[in-house]
Write a structure and sequence with these properties.
heterodimer; A: mainly beta; 7-stranded mixed β-sheet; 4-stranded antiparallel β-sheet; globular; B: mainly beta; 5-stranded antiparallel β-sheet
């Protein structure tokens, strides 16, 4: 089954404790992206990757890091999480960045930073 | 500066009637638009899209209309069904902008039986 898998689904952590949210897709997609969803703000793009070893900032990259060492995985790293990073996070992928096609989303990771 | 806006946070319609969800954008460089549907505890799923070279695209009960001069698009659902109750996101992108996508805030649609 074609899918985007995020782990964990839920995470509660403390301020400053480094964490990684993993994202994996099995569709051989070149393009992957991370979003956060906050009430009243919709989905905002954090980082995206057009291919292996190619990443770029979205609209809200501050406080986040990403890496794309292999095509299927695109982890989101919070080196020092803060309460304002409490949010619902979605990973997405699509075939190629320049294609006018839809993105496939993971089920989301609800992160709470206390 | 929010480039994609869905001005109605919520919409309630009766089963069988038409649902119209609206989306406005400010960036004239956007040339591809999509609608996603999101159920609670799930990720968004693609619904329908439209390229700026068209003004209408249909897929079953779903039709998207694009008015480029007004920088406005709308999603029509006819007839509406209770299973359509979800949050609908409008998204826009520029083909030349190398991968960036901009989403609206979402509209929560409730279809009453």
């Amino acid at each position: 089954e074609a899918q985007v898998t995020q782990n964990p689904r839920y995470l509660i952590t403390v301020t400053g404790k480094k964490l990684t949210v993993t994202c994996s897709q099995n569709m051989n997609h070149e393009y992957m992206s991370w979003y956060r969803q906050d009430p009243g703000l919709g989905l905002r793009q954090i980082y995206y990757s057009m291919n292996v070893e190619v990443t770029d900032k979205g609209d809200v990259p501050e406080g986040y890091k990403v890496s794309r060492k292999e095509k299927r995985n695109f982890p989101l790293i919070l080196e020092s999480p803060s309460p304002n990073q409490t949010s619902l996070y979605f990973c997405a992928s699509k075939g190629r960045w320049y294609q006018d096609t839809e993105a496939f989303f993971g089920q989301g990771t609800r992160l709470t930073v206390v | 500066d929010q480039q994609v806006k869905q001005n109605s946070p919520s919409l309630s319609v009766q089963e069988g009637r038409i649902s119209i969800l609206n989306c406005d954008y400010t960036n004239s460089m956007f040339d591809y638009f999509l609608w996603y549907k999101k159920y609670p505890a799930e990720g968004p799923t693609f619904l329908i899209s439209i390229s700026s070279i068209k003004d209408k695209n249909e897929d079953g009960r779903f039709t998207v209309f694009l008015n480029k001069s007004a920088k406005h698009l709308s999603l029509h659902i006819v007839p509406s069904q209770p299973g359509d109750s979800a949050v609908y996101f409008c998204a826009a992108s520029e083909t030349e902008a190398a991968g960036k996508s901009t989403f609206g805030d979402g509209t929560t649609l409730t279809v009453k039986p």
